[in-house]
């Protein structure tokens, strides 16, 4: 029995050593290894059955994709910048091979309850089924996109370690390739087109030369990580909340935005009709993006007699952003600096790029996705996620 245990251990170690000999993922990405709790599907395994609801509100099953010569299963997510950067390349694969007998389906493995707010710094949306529908609509994604987040049972069968993570099956629906799509996030630097080469090999009746390449991207957000989300919210609720008087000079300096941060300024009052929801959405956005070059300032336009009420409101929102209070008498001068006018009890939201360019200005209730798109489109590229600036600049209107 002891010898058998030793042999099993040696086999496992040998497997991981074999994987470690594969060339590492490109610099700036997150290398992913097989999860012992959710082991990676071995090459040669039959495609597991599934029945998952898609963004089209239809239930999609494995049998739906039985006619194609090849089946490509793509694990992707809405929130992950690496997955976002590969959407265009996945579309190129689809456009090239869908008419040649290759079936495509995408699965979002993530449970949105297991994704912290500080992990949403490169997205406008979460991984919820509702937000998946918005991404499909905005990016005109043609393949079925299904959610496995509720139970994650399908992702466990595959052992999907990251988004993106691609699995390619032959005509008998046996796994012949799994791993990365290609070897570099920067499309201009790609040298090895792994997914393309695997599909070509299978269509020609040949064998896939390299059946495994480690996937890289954002780790699968298993529901077991939901405790991290709860701990994050506990920290957020413990952050200090302050309301500070501000002058017209303070607000004029905000409008100039001479620093290197994308800045959002939101004017509000406790008399606003939609203040609660809009303020909460903007605070969530602050928590999403504050790990980047981002600054969020709220400006209360209540009369001094309502200062206590405004402070209570901020505490109820756990508003740890920078919160200023502007005297109503100074509002007109500040409006001149922002190039717009609004009532003291009316909302006004501005997104200002570094250097002072006003990229978004809106009076009235907030469309939070419009605000986030303006913010994301104003960030410069992070070298860890090349292509983000182009991705948001090319967003379908």
Terminal Cα span: 64 Å
Q: How helical, in percent, are the residues?
A: 25-40%
Write down the Rg: 25 Å
Spatial strand sequence of the major β-sheet? 5-4-3-7-8-9
Just name the CATH architecture of the largest domain.
3-Layer(aba) Sandwich
Task: List its salient traits.
397 residues; alpha/beta; Glutaredoxin; 2 domains; 6-stranded mixed beta sheet; 12 helices; 34% helix; elongated
Per-chain topology:
Elements: H1 2-20, E1 51-53, E2 59-61, E3 70-75, H2 81-97, E4 102-108, H3 129-139, E5 145-147, H4 153-158, E6 162-163, E7 165-169, E8 175-179, H5 194-203, E9 212-213, E10 218-219, H6 226-238, E11 244-246, H7 248-256, E12 262-268, H8 275-289, E13 294-300, H9 307-316, E14 322-326, H10 331-338, E15 348-352, E16 358-363, H11 368-376, H12 388-393
Parallel strand pairs: 3-4, 4-5, 8-9, 11-14, 12-13, 13-14
Antiparallel strand pairs: 1-2, 3-7, 6-10, 7-8, 12-15, 15-16
Characterise this structure.
Keywords: Signal. GO terms for molecular function: antioxidant activity; oxidoreductase activity. This is Peroxiredoxin. Residues 1-20 form the signal peptide. InterPro entries: AhpC/TSA, PRX-like1, Thioredoxin-like_sf, Thioredoxin_domain. This protein has 397 residues and is an alpha/beta fold. The chain folds into two domains: 22-225, Glutaredoxin, CATH 3.40.30; 239-380, Glutaredoxin. The protein is built from twelve helices and 16 strands. The protein has helices at residues 2-20, 81-97, 129-139, 153-158, 194-203, 226-238, 248-256, 275-289, 307-316, 331-338, 368-376, 388-393, and strands at 51-53, 59-61, 70-75, 102-108, 145-147, 162-163, 165-169, 175-179, 212-213, 218-219, 244-246, 262-268, 294-300, 322-326, 348-352, 358-363. Strands 5-4-3-7-8-9 form a six-stranded mixed sheet. Strands 11-14-13-12-15-16 form a six-stranded mixed sheet. Helix 7 packs parallel to helix 10 (331-338). The longest helix is centred in the N-terminal third of the chain and has 19 residues, at 2-20. It is elongated and about 75 Å long.
């Amino acid at each position: 029995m002891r010898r058998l245990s030793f042999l099993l251990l040696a086999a496992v170690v040998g497997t991981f050593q074999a994987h470690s000999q594969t060339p590492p993922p490109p610099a700036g990405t997150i290398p992913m290894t097989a999860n012992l709790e959710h082991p990676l599907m071995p090459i040669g395994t039959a495609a597991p059955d599934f029945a998952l609801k898609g963004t089209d509100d239809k239930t999609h099953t494995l049998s739906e994709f039985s006619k194609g010569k090849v089946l490509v299963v793509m694990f992707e997510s809405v929130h992950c910048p690496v997955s976002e950067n590969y959407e265009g390349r996945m579309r190129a694969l689809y456009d090239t091979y869908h008419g040649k007998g290759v079936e495509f389906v995408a699965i979002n493995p993530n449970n949105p309850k297991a994704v912290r707010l500080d992990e949403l710094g490169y997205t406008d949306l979460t991984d919820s089924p509702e937000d998946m529908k918005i991404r499909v609509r905005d990016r005109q994604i043609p393949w079925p996109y299904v959610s496995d987040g509720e139970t994650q049972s399908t992702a466990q069968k595959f052992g999907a370690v990251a988004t993106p993570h691609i699995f390619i099956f032959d005509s008998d629906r046996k796994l012949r390739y799994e791993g990365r799509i290609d070897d570099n996030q920067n499309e201009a630097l790609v040298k090895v087109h792994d997914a393309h080469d695997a599909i070509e090999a299978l269509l020609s009746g040949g064998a896939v030369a390299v059946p495994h390449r480690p996937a890289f991207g954002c780790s699968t957000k298993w529901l077991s990580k939901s405790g991290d989300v709860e701990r994050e919210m506990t920290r957020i609720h413990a952050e200090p909340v302050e309301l500070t008087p501000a002058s017209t000079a303070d607000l004029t300096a905000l409008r100039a935005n001479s620093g290197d941060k994308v800045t959002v300024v939101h004017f509000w009052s406790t008399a606003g009709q939609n203040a609660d929801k809009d303020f909460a959405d903007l605070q969530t956005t602050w928590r999403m993006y504050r790990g980047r070059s981002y600054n969020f300032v709220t400006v209360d336009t209540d009369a001094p007699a309502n200062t206590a009420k405004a402070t209570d409101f901020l505490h109820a929102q756990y508003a740890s952003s920078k919160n200023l209070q502007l005297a109503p008498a100074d509002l007109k001068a500040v409006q001149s600096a922002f190039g717009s006018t609004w009532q003291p009890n009316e909302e006004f939201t501005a997104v200002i790029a570094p250097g002072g360019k006003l990229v978004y200005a809106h009076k009235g209730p907030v469309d939070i996705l419009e605000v986030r798109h303006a913010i994301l489109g104003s960030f410069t590229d992070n070298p860890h996620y090349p292509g983000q600036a182009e991705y948001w600049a090319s967003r379908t209107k």
